[in-house]
């Protein structure tokens, strides 16, 4: 075989290797790409904000695993525990009244939390992209902000109180494990993209008088409408999704 033939064989091998790399890149799922982007964001945030100062204590955002909110604390301020990626346990005090915006956003190991019976406010994005499995929101809560559970992909159970009057924009956006939810009679409106891409959602029961944004249930491909109860109705116009 000539040197030219050898060179051509090498060139073809190099091209094949390049094609294989491109194929591998193409084969990465959208979920994997999103996870990589999320991890990169968390690392960048930790680099810029390495320490958490809260309740007179200082914690390493990268390694802190548990927090106890002391008696007398009334507020967790905006973004306090954002991107505490190892945080898995948080004990709240009964004096806590408010959880600030994005407080536990990107807490990837936070699977459960027991809220104070006197809590009144859960601000926008408070638990966004955490790993909560279930949550009970007490009747003391009157404000539930938008994006609160955005992209909580493991969330399967939510208990909502009669004390809130609306489901705000993107509240349950991308909660892909949520299969059903009953909204209390106090809910007057459901905002834009409130349940967007809740792909496992099969039933939603809402008050008859509730105003529902046209985009609220976009992407809910399994949503069914088969039953109704006193003073309540299932959203029927999503039957054909």
Q: Secondary-structure element order, as H and E?
A: HHEEEEEEEEEEEEEEEEE
CATH architecture of the largest domain: Alpha-Beta Horseshoe
Radius of gyration: 23 Å
What is the SS-derived class?
A: alpha/beta
- Tally of separate domains: 2
**If you consult CATH, what is the topology of the largest domain?**
Leucine-rich repeat, LRR (right-handed beta-alpha superhelix)
Measured distance between first and last alpha carbons = 62 Å
Question: Could you tell me the mean pLDDT?
Answer: 86
Number of strands: 17
Uncertain residue ranges: 225-241
Question: Quick one: overall form?
Answer: globular
CATH homologous superfamily title of the largest domain: Ribonuclease Inhibitor
**Main beta sheet strand tally, sense and closure:** 4 strands, parallel
Q: Numbering strands along the chain, what is their spatial order in the largest sheet? A: 4-6-7-9
Strand portion:
15-25%
How many DSSP helices?
A: 2
What is the CATH top level name of the largest domain?
Answer: Alpha Beta
- Specify the helix fraction band: 10-25%
Characterization of this structure:
With 241 residues, the chain is an alpha/beta fold. The protein has two domains: 1-34; 35-234, Leucine-rich repeat, LRR (right-handed beta-alpha superhelix) (Alpha-Beta Horseshoe). It has helices at 3-27, 30-48, and strands at residues 51-54, 57-60, 66-68, 75-76, 89-91, 98-99, 121-122, 134-136, 143-144, 157-159, 166-167, 180-182, 189-190, 203-207, 211-212, 228-229, 232-234. A four-stranded parallel sheet has the order 4-6-7-9, with no helix packed on it. The protein has a four-stranded mixed sheet with strand order 12-14-17-16, with no helix packed on it. A hairpin with a 2-residue loop joins β1 and β2 (57-60).
């Amino acid at each position: 075989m000539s040197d030219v033939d050898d060179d051509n064989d090498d060139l073809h091998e190099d091209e094949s290797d390049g094609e294989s790399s491109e194929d591998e890149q193409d084969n990465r799922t959208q979920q994997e790409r999103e996870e990589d982007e999320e991890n990169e964001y968390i690392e960048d945030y930790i680099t810029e904000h390495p320490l958490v100062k809260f309740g007179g204590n200082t914690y390493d955002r990268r390694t802190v695993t548990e927090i106890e909110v002391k008696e007398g604390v009334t507020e967790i301020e905006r973004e306090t525990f954002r991107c505490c990626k190892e945080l898995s346990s948080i004990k709240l005090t009964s004096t806590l009244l408010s959880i600030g915006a994005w407080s536990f956003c990107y807490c990837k190991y936070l699977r459960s939390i027991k809220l104070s019976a006197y809590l009144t406010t859960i601000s926008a994005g408070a638990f966004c992209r955490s790993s909560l499995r279930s949550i009970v929101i007490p009747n003391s809560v009157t404000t539930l902000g938008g994006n609160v559970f955005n992209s909580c992909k493991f969330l399967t159970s939510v208990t909502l109180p009669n004390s809130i009057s609306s489901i705000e924009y993107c509240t349950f956006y991308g909660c892909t494990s949520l299969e059903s939810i009953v909204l209390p009679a106090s809910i007057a409106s459901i905002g834009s993209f409130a349940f967007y891409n809740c792909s496992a959602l099969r039933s939603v029961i809402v008050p008859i008088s509730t105003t529902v944004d046209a985009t609220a249930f976009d992407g809910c491909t399994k949503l069914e409408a088969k039953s109704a109860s006193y003073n309540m109705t299932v959203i029927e116009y999503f039957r054909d999704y």
